[in-house]
Model the fold of this input.
Amino acid sequence: MYQQKQKGSIRKKLLFMMLVVTSLVSFIGYSAFMVWYLKDQQKQSLQLAKTVSKALAHNIAKLVLLDDVSQASDITSQLSSFPAVVSMILYKNNGVAIYRYKNKKISNSNDNIFEFKISAKYQDMKLGYIKFKIRKKSIYEIFKDDLNIIIFAYIIMIILSYILSILFSKEFTEPILKLVKFLDGIEYSVLKERVHIKENNEYSLLYDEINVMLDRIEKAREEQRLSSVAFETPSCMIVTDSKERILRANRAFSKITGFSLAEVLGKHLEILRPNNQNEDFIKEIKDSLNKYHYWSGEVFTKHKDGKTYPKFLTIQSVFDDDGKVIYYVLSFVDLSIEKEIKAKLEFLKQYDEVTGFAKRELFISRFQIFLNKNKQKNFWGALICFNIKDFKDINDTYGYKRGDMLLQKISERLKDKFPKCDMMAKIGTDEFVLWFSNIGNNKQEAQLQSQIFAEYLMKIMKKPFIISEKIIHISIYVGIELYGEYINDAPLLLRQADTALSLAKNKDNGFAFFDKEIESEVSMRLDMYSELIIALKEKQFELYYQLQFKDGGEIYGAEALLRWNHPTKGVVMPANFIPIAEKTGLIIEIGKRVLKEACKQLYLWQNDSKTSKWIMAVNVSAKQFNQDSFLSDFKEIVRKSGIKRSGLKIELTESLLVENMENVIEKMIALRNFGIKISLDDFGTGYSSLQYLKYMPLDQIKIDQTFVVNMMEDESDIYIIKTIIALGQTFGFDIIAEGVETKEHYEYLKKMGCRYFQGFYFAKPFPIEKIEKFIK
Done:
């Protein structure tokens, strides 16, 4: 306002004071900045060291745990992308340095270097520690970088001070300098201070206006700060009106949801909700807002592309002066990546990264839970362990990468060839275990079946593997541990399977059972095989017949059951010799003889008015059915017998369906076209799939006796039986229940809708002579 040129000491003193004050403030401010910068530089260097250690955790784990030297070059390559890292030394837990890195582009001077010691960890496991040296800027370098700005600022300060000293006279100097000093000392982040004066004139008005202005600036700054925090945060922010129409959203909203602000502005929040959103859940949120004006929790949100993803949502109500809701502020964070990382980490803790199989701890845990729950009554299970012969040589020859690819191919082959295995696990570098919870009703059956599995396993593993255009042949050792009732220790069973695997390495056949008793039983089976050959020659086999009944009590037919009249052991039941006959192939000849004998008897029944409508059921083993010549042999026997084909029914077990389902159905159709009835035996205990059931040309489903015998004590068996009967009604199959031993069984089954029955309540299996007496 005043442009009069002033002279004298006041102006010079004012100029000098302004220069001194501003210089001092600038020096202190720059010094404070320098201190802050150095501390921040140290903090950032420490963070860099932590970031580098995390980035290298996977490679360091392989280097420390697997002694994979190839990881050193990968670590060096990654470190080169961090120019501030001067050097890095990796020490094991015992203090031995196993890796060193030096940035050749940086001198060895220690004057401008931070040193840090960081723990080397991988998945919460301490592998050792790392010493980092990270370059820092010196005070001189910082000052040198800022010199031009400092000089420029200081020049401006001198010019402004000189101009102000000219503009103000003595009478205005003190109030104005006071005001200037006050204003010069104000920082934008702190606006709580106010200026005051005792004079009652224009200065007092000016001071009051300054204070009012500061109040407004502080309020505006606070509002601006809140707005900035809300809408520049990485979290997604949305503001809606009271009717949930979107009014505003930040940049993070578009990045996370895929919607631009223009696409959602004025639209209801419904646009972000999945189509299957639970209405009760939405009501719960609204009730919370009405009562507490706040809600937070995990929800699912719809992306623009239609996919849903998890988020953590917070909703806050905003009120006007009358207490009425005018806005809702929503803030949410995308949890997809966090959940994926947690899921992956959890997976890697329990599952092998290469094969996807369970690790030892998870396998033992699930196996133990099964043992505790089932107590292994009335059936036997097996653990089959195997490992690869000379796997280390394979890794050395073809490299660890191809070794991992080989393990992956092995896991794929196992899953393909053993689809009914209860669980597969990788419990060592090249050791696997297959768990079968039920492979036989007794030890002998389990022993035979496990041996079949072991031999099949060795056979499929001998087939070559093609890995990156390289053909690799392997052989394996197999150890078998059987378990039954009263065995309830999963770790012990697995150790015993490992022991059997060790024993297998000293055997010519490449596999071994855990104890000598089982091996002696193998010899007994060989003896039985010889006796079965004699039994075929000397016609020691005989057919027994168990009558089947309708719900009205009349006889429906009979099932032909094979018995072995051993010269010294007496009558031998099929369960004791059929598995060996199937394993050795003798079941083919035995099955033909059973069919011939059954057809002869059916021919006699069909020519007797009392039994002419009876149905003869004959069991056909999976081994026999899968023979290429089965259809031709079967048709030839039936044609020669002269029977009416509608009176013959073959019973196939579910185990037949484990492989080549299409081929099985094709043969079943051929038999059906030939005029033969088909029944599926032991339904519910094996491999049946509803996917294929509708394609099978079945006439009958047989409810296995294991469900019938205990159904009055175990309600779950009743549910299974009801389900099977319902399936029969749906697909048009007859249902016959075997193992009906009491009148209570019979009445309850009939009440549930079963129409055909077989069991001791009606009749036991008898030779044909007693059957004829029974009829009379």
Notes: The chain has a mean pLDDT of 82. The first strand starts at residue 85 and ends at 92. Residues 532-775 form a domain with the TIM Barrel fold (CATH 3.20.20.450). The CA atoms of residues 272 and 552 lie 63 Å apart.
